[in-house]
Amino acid sequence: MKCLLVVTESAEILFYWTDAAFEKNLREQYGAVENTGDRLPAVEDSINTLFAPLIISCSTLIEKINDIYTSFVTENGHHYILHQFGECLYIAVNGDGSESEDDLRRKIFVLKKFMEVQFGMVTLNSTLLKKELRPNDTGKRGRLWKMLQGLLDTYDLLRNQEQSFMVEAVERLIHPTLCEQCIEFLERRVVQQINGSPERAGEEVLHAFILVHTKLLAFYSSRSASSVKPSDLLALILLVQNMYPDISDHGDAAAEDFDVGSAPEVYYTPQPSPTGKKTELMGAEEECTPVFQFVEPDIQMAEDSLNILESEHRDPAFPRRVFLEATFKDGYCPMMPHSMYCLPLWPGISLVLLTKIPNSQVAVSLYNFLEAFSLLEKKLNEVQEGIPHSRLQSSLPSLADLRTKLDKFIRALGNIDQQLQNTWTDFKNKAFLRTGQGNAQELLPLCRSLRSQLCAIYRQYFVTEGQGSHQRLSENLQKKAFTMMQEKLTDWKDFLLVKSKRNITMVSYLEEFPGLIHFIYVDRTAGQMISPSLSVSDDSTSELGKGPLAHFIKSKVWSLVRTSRRYLQKGYTTVTLRDGDYYFSYFLWFENETGYKLEVIELPVLSDDSAPIGMLAGDYYRKLLRYYSKTHQTEIIKCYELMTIHLGVIPPDSILQQCCDLARKLWEPSRIPLL
Fold it and tell me: If I label 578, which of 3, 36, 322, 546 is the partner at 20 to 30 A Cα–Cα?
């Protein structure tokens, strides 16, 4: 029985996700009481009734002591986790014992990540975020909530099935020769041809990558592009899996080559699962119905779980707007707008293009202004009374530069936002007084207003207009990329689909490492992992077989990951423990660029309500690398993790030696140039 809720301080629901058991409980609890007609009360109304006392209590605590509950357990054993982001309260509930407090808190932070990818810097302003999450148009609201619910369903499914999503790292499909060929093909035949075409409508392909199910085959970035952060890449993989779920393994289910002149090409994708029924994402092919097809002369697409576009033209050629971190030589933007094109070559194999959109540089300018006003607001908050003009200038030497740049920026915008011009003029008149006095109490609300209006411009440029814009790569260009990529991989298709299920096997390690049952090796700097395949499905086999043993070992692996996170949260970098007939081992260490292992330092201990350890939920390892680099500023620092399961009959000394040898053996394959 599960629920995830986003509400305002006034108990207005901005988003909810529930499973079938939770909805059933709501109907049993409120249906008989509130039902005055033939219809049962809406789920949203019942949720509001159930949670209103808790929300009001939290609002009162914030008002009185500026704090809220972080977690509690009710008499009936239901776990509640709460977290406040701005003016939005996130509540995660579990009533069946299937999720720990860490799982619930992780789900909250993952939902926040989805919203950042979906709305960009609009998430920095609670008022604008409320408008996006709860639009007045009920149809648009329903599609948006359905899309976010589908993402949570997909995340829940992948986290329980895929090792890469359990440890939150990208898993590569290991085949160096094909990988290099595909990278070269993406560069010369896909990216360069599209970027050299007049049909690209002002867009430029920055990144192109190939996915086989959840595994990354090849990734190419143009020379002018910023690198894609591993957490963003993992989120994109999840988006693709939600758009085109894994409905078959390989073979007969693969689509035939796309031919423009032939009959309409139909791709089969399951209808969106009802809320809470995540297992239906993996339904059999014969139970699916076609939800979109390429039709000449126009490409049309039926509505699916990812459709949030306001436009009536819902076709697969229409890109999805995503916001990703970007770093440049002369700038930085944590949520840079991109267009994402996902071309399903065959079921399970997709080509994804990320493009730079026209006017995207506006986002960098807006972020710089937001940061400047945040800094200014922080300085003004430290001042309790009027400050002299000279003191303001000395504490913020860049204020004059900010004035020049924002004046120029507003002139370039034209009359797009008269309110911003008026507020900025008012700010300048009060900040740059001839008398040399600027009142902090007057400037603070103007700072907040300017930040809000800058976010509103960002929303207008990249979120609102991005949903309805028809400016995109032409359908002809997309078809060319689709056809070329299919021709390149046709002979490899079946091999790749099988390889994705048995990427690495334990057979090649058993002779050298006797007693080793399983391992997970993660390069946390690159955000990539290597691990033997671990499949327990009925239609695939591994060294563990299909029976109870496979499920048992999988449960042990998942338990090892959770255990290692708990110890890492407490500051431990090395853990060895015995669990019945098995030994668990966990190691985290740092190296320099040459592979020399660096000394161990004392890691910070995290509080129970901090962001969960991982990449999607706060990017803990990135912060850890920054923390370690403070004492090694002249070196490039790498961070690695190794988790192993051994038979309990192996002596502990032998296990430690094996772990050292295994890490050394895995060091070289991790250098395959995919990113």
Answer: 546
Regarding whether 657 and 593 lie in a shared domain, the answer is yes
Residue numbers of the domain that contains 38 = 2-133
3 state DSSP class of 630: coil
Residue 515 belongs to a domain? yes
In order of 377, 399, 447, 450, the CA distances from 372 in angstroms are: 9, 8, 10, 11
Is the separation of the CB atoms in 105 and 81 below 8 Å? yes
User: What does the pLDDT look like over 566-577, one tens digit per residue?
Assistant: 999 999 999 999
Dihedral over Cα of 319, 322, 327, 328: its sign: positive
Cα separation of 55 and 91, whole Å?
9
In the numeric block, the tokens 């909810």 are attached to 16
β 574-579/582-591 pair status: antiparallel
For 224, phi then psi, to 5°, come to -90, 0
DSSP characters over 541-600: --TT-SSHHHHHHHHHHHHHHHHHHHHHHTT-SEEEEEETTEEEEEEEEEE-TTSPBPPP
Do 185 and 311 fall within a single domain? yes
User: Contact, 299 vs 284, CB < 8 A?
Assistant: no
Residue 558 to residues 201, 562, 583: CA-CA distances in angstroms? 46, 6, 14
- Enumerate the β-bridge partners of residue 647: 582
- Say what the alpha-carbon torsion angle 458, 462, 467, 471 is, to the nearest 10 degrees: 150
| pLDDT given for residue 469 in this prediction | 55
pTM of the model: 0.85
Amino acid code (one letter) for 119? F
Name residues whose C-beta falls within 8 Å of residue 24's C-beta, 6 or more positions apart in sequence. none
The whole-number mean pLDDT for each consecutive block of 10 residues of the chain, a chain of 675 residues, reads 92 93 86 50 84 89 83 91 92 92 95 96 95 93 94 95 95 92 95 92 94 96 93 97 72 37 38 40 37 38 37 59 91 94 95 94 94 87 59 61 90 81 88 63 87 94 71 89 95 94 85 92 94 72 67 92 95 93 95 88 90 91 93 90 94 93 78 44
Residues 184 and 253 in one domain: yes
Co-location of 662 and 522 in the same domain: yes
Nearest to 239, CA basis, from 171, 337, 321: 321
Residues 317 and 375 in one domain: no
What's the confidence (pLDDT) of residue 259? Answer: 38
- Do 207 and 255 sit in the same domain of this protein? yes
Q: Residue 270 corresponds to which amino acid?
A: P
Do 345 and 493 fall within a single domain? yes
Are 426 and 489 in a shared domain? no
Instruction: Indicate the Cα dihedral angle 375, 379, 381, 383, nearest 10°.
Output: -170
Q: How far apart are CA 29 and CA 34, in angstroms?
A: 9
Q: What CA–CA distance (Å, rounded) separates 652 from 666?
A: 21
Say if 644 falls within a structural domain.
Answer: yes
Estimate the share of the chain in helix, then strand, then coil, as percent rounded to the nearest 5: 45, 20, 35
CATH number at residue 586: 3.30.450
Nearest to 583 by CA among 547, 556, 544: 556
- 650 found inside a domain: yes
Confidence (pLDDT) at 293? 41
* Distance in angstroms (rounded) separating the CA atoms of residues 87 and 100: 26
Q: How many domains does the chain have?
A: 4
Q: What is the pLDDT of residue 16?
A: 95
Of 467, 486, 519, the last residue of a domain is 467
Looking at the domain assignment, is residue 453 inside a domain?
yes
Instruction: Write a three-state SS string for 179-198.
Output: HHHHHHHHHHHHHHHHHCCH
What pLDDT does residue 101 have? 92
